[in-house]
Structure formats: structure tokens, C-alpha cells
Amino acid sequence: MATYWERRMAEADAAMGRDERVVAKRVARAYEREMADLSREIAGYYERYGEDGILRYRDMLESMDPSDRDLLMRDCDRFAAEHPDLADMVAIRKDAYKLDRLEGLQESARQHHARATAEAAEGLDEHFARQAARGANAVAEAMGYGRGFHALDDDTIRRFVGTRWASGKSYSEAIWGDSERVAAWVQDDMAKALARGESWRSLCDELSRRFVGVSERDVMRLVVTEGTYVSRQAQLAELAREGFEEYRVEPVGDERTCEVCSALVGKAFPIDGARVGATLPPIHPRCRCQIAPAVDDWDAWIRDQVDRRQAEVAARRMTEGGERAKGARAVQDECSRIESDFGRVWRDYRASGKSREGYDETVNAYLASISDGRVSAEYRAKPKAKEIQAATWLARNGHEVRFNYESSIPGSRTADMTVDGAPYELKRLGTHNAHKAKVRIGEAARQCSNIIVDLSLRTLTGEQEEEVLRAMASKKDIDAIIALSDVFERVFRRQ
User: Fold this and answer.
1) What are the extents of the domains in the chain?
2) pTM for the whole structure
């Protein structure tokens, strides 16, 4: 029965295999498409210059027709514009006007092959980053950290992608080196087949074996080998981070396992002395060997490790929960003080005869005193304590806030306040349920398309807050959301 570690690693490698099959289909399509275009081009040569289905070699040594040469140059310029970093791969010599027909067709074949290779190599950085992240996360999960511990853009993941390791080359350099080699073979095959007087179909079939078959095998050999490399590098780094000092190589153990890899079974190697190709997979091209920490009773060790990690996570959550609860109580205490103070101010306003002058001398004077003059209110507006509290946080962040007088007419849509001249409705969230939080924000949106979401009671987790705010900011009836608390302010706008 497979150990917990083996199951996690097998799942990660199975997912990598599925990704590789997708890449293989894309690579095959790229070379097959360009070979089909080249075949049509060769057919044009046979039609224009051939006799009885044969293209005579001596006819191909005549100077290249201007129309064919112009087409070749345009193709070269187009490739250089699309791939400026690869322009030298299809550069035609300066005396291109001296090219004979054979040389022109050979140059065209090289361009088609370069175009196919560029398409085949596209997206491989992301593919390898995904395998490195998946390998590291498989180890992290086995250690009790849960899934998704590492992201694709982590520096700890990206540092393994595109490194020079096999013969001192990066995977990209190796792919293009193979491409030049195959393109040269194709050009040579073309010349020899024409010299033998091969038919169009025979020539294209012969070229396709290298142009498509060899190229596809070369690229996928590199994809599979590089995938194993980045995955094992990321896993080894994760083991080192966890404090392990040794690891073991674990071949898959099926009929395809080679003698070299089988000879490594049972041996422990120091992590700080790992050597790719000797003691660390990939041991050879297309190697699928896995690695594991050198632990005698792995299942017993991992149970203890998972228990310890879960205890650490639970303790951290309790600490964080306590801090969040403490912060929420402080917000509520401050809100109660504001409610009490504003209650006295409102009574003073009423005692003044409810005049505009009395309003400014009581309500607006109070609001100005607690906000460095940045918060005010429209005559007769009676803001709630939580609204005043939120306004002081906005003022502290440099905003000008003014409360609106809310009409008592049924169906009227008056926003709670203006912030820097723009209307906003305030909604303080006090629910622990993300769905209910979205409903509350939706209610505010019926009043105004700009919303201040007060998160100061800290009832949602950080992940829930992010999900709720991004989901609601994408709604067509919401233009902007200010996520606010006593310690932060963030703005979300509809894209």
C-alpha cells in the first residue's frame, strides 16, 4: 500500500502528465500546420518548374524568380516583427538576390520550421512554473500546510524556471538548438531528394519525418525532462526548508524503469550535495523518478507532522481571532462614545430652536472638532454614530466628507454622504456569512452606485472580505466600493 507521501507525489505527477499531453497536442499542431504550408509551397514549385511530376535538380539551380524572392523576404520580415528576439533565426544573407530556386525553397523551409518552433515554445514558462508550484505544494500539503501554499508567481517557484542546467543550457536554448539542427537536416534532405528526382509526395513525406516527427519528439523530450527538473528542484527546496538533511530517489517501478534509476533505490543522499543527473532526477532524458525525505517510518512521521501543523494553525487562528475580536470591541466602544457625545450635541441643536445658525454652532462645530474640519453636514442632517465614526476615518485619510439630509419621502434615493464631492452610501457589515454580506452591499447599491463598506467589526475572514468585495465590485449597478476600517482603506472599481 502506498504511503501518504507517495500518494501526494503521484497525484502531482499525474497532473503534470495531463498538462504534458495538452502541450504535446499543441506542439504537434504547430509543426503539422507549418509542414502543410511548406508542402503547398513545394507543390507550387513542382507545378511551375516541373515536368511529368518531377522537379529537375538543374532547374532548381537557376536564379530565383523575383516574385518568389519577394515572398520569401516578406515572410522573413513578418517573422522578425512577430519574434524580434528570434529574428536572427531566419535572417537571409544580404546577397539574397543571388539565391537560386533550391536555396530559396530551403530558406523558406527554415522559416516555416522556426515559426512552428516559436509557436511550440510559447507558454512553456507558465507550464514549468505550474509544475514547480505543483511539486512544492505537494510537499507542503504532505507537511500539513494544506493545498495552494505556493503561488505561480512566488520567487521560490520562478527561480527554477528557465535555468541553465543540462549541458549549461536553458530549456529554451536547447529547443532552439534542436530546431536549427533539424532545419539543417530538412534543407539537406530537400537537396538530396531533388537530386534523386523524387516526386512531390515522396519529397514531402520524407521532409515531414524530420520536420514534424523529429521536431515533435525533441520538444516533448525537453518538456518532460524539464518538467521533472523544476518539480524535483522545488520539492527538494521545500524539504530543505522543512529541515530535512537527506532524501531518497524513488523510481516509478514499472516496466519502463531503467537500470540506472533502479540502482539508486534505498540510498540516502545529502540535500546540500544533490547533483542533477547523478543523484537527483532527472537522471536521464524523460526521467520520471520521484524523491522523498529519508525517513524510516514515513507514515508515522507524517502523522506526527500533520498533527503538529494542525495544532500550530489552530493556535494561530485562535490568536488572530482574539486580535480581531479585540479590535472589533474597540470600534464598538468608540462608536458608543460618539453616540453619547452626538446625542448631547443634537439636544443642544434642538434647544437652539432648530435654526440653521444653531445647527452650524452645534452639529457642524462638533463634526469639525473631531475631524480637523474635514467633516460637515447639510442643514438638518442627522448622521448615525457609525456613519460619523466612518467619516472620521475617511477624514484621517485626507478625504472631505459631508452628510446629506435624507428625505422622509418614500422611495427617495439620497446617499448617506458625499466623499470628495461624490455621493456614497455606507454599509457596516456585522455578519459572519459571506452571502449575507453580499446581500447587504446589494441593498446599499439600490441607494447609490458608490458604496462604503465598513469592515471594522471584522466579522469576515480576510479571504471572505476579498471574495465579497471583488464579486460585488464587478456588478453592473456598482461603480466603486471603498473598503474601510479603522486601520485601512482600499478602493475597488468596476472593470
Assistant:
1) 4-296, 320-493
2) 0.57
Give one DSSP letter per residue of 95-128, joined into a string: TGGG-BHHHHHHHHHHHHHHHHHHHHHTTHHHHH
DSSP 475: S
Cα(267)–Cα(282) distance, rounded to whole angstroms? 16
* pLDDT beyond 80 at 341: yes
For 321, the grid coordinates are 481571532
Find out whether 210 and 189 touch, Cβ atoms under 8 Å. Answer: yes
Pairing of strands 375-377, 246-250: unpaired
Share of the chain above pLDDT 90, in %: 34
Cell matching residue 223: 518538456
End-to-end CA distance of the chain: 51
Q: Per CATH, the architecture of 320-493 is what? A: 3-Layer(aba) Sandwich (3.40)
Q: In what order do the strands lie in the sheet with 417-419?
A: 375-377, 401-403, 417-419, 422-428, 450-454, 480-484, 489-493
**Helix, strand or coil for residue 166?**
strand
Q: What grid cell was written down for 344? A: 448631547
Do residues 16 and 22 make contact, with C-beta atoms less than 8 angstroms apart? no
